[in-house]
Amino acid sequence: MARLGDASCLLRAKRVDGAIYLAGYAIECCLKEAVCIRTGQNHLPAAEEVHSWDRLVDSANLWSAILAQPEVFSLYSSLSEKWKSCQWGSALRYRVGLFQIREAQRLYSEIEALYDALVEMM
Is the dihedral of CA 83, 66, 57, 120 positive or negative? Predict the structure, then answer.
């Protein structure tokens, strides 16, 4: 939750690219926590130290819960595709000027909704 709060602060300061990157990273952290919870581990297994949302969802056995909620599945599908794209994900660490404030606010709201849904699934 801390990374999502940090992203919110960046968004309010109009540091939109950093905000979206950090919000997406919050999803990744949430999924990594889900893997730990589902596997009963205190630390993320080395094999799961990846940046792939899909792989983490699979490792956390969350696909059925995501698929059971069409709105969540739609959000997840849209956002995960963007995270995989060359303009999102880790590429956002090095780029600026990709998002206008309104678009970033919309994306942040979507990411926050997905985050909340994933937390409920854990």
Answer: positive
**Which single residue is written with the structure tokens 């801390």?**
2
Using the CB atoms, write b or e for 13-50: b if 16+ within 10 Å.
eebbbbbbbbbbbbbbbbbbbbbbeeeeeeebeeebee
CA-based radius of gyration for the chain: 14
Residue 55, domain extent: 2-121
Total domain count, the chain: 1
- pTM given for the model: 0.89
Three-class SS string for the chain?
CHHHHHHHHHHHCCCHHHHHHHHHHHHHHHHHHHHHHHHCCCCCCHHHCCCCHHHHHHHCCCHHHHHCCHHHHHHHHHHHHHHHCCCCHHHHHCCCCCCCHHHHHHHHHHHHHHHHHHHHHC
Confidence band for 82, pLDDT divided at 50, 70 and 90: confident
pLDDT score for 62:
97
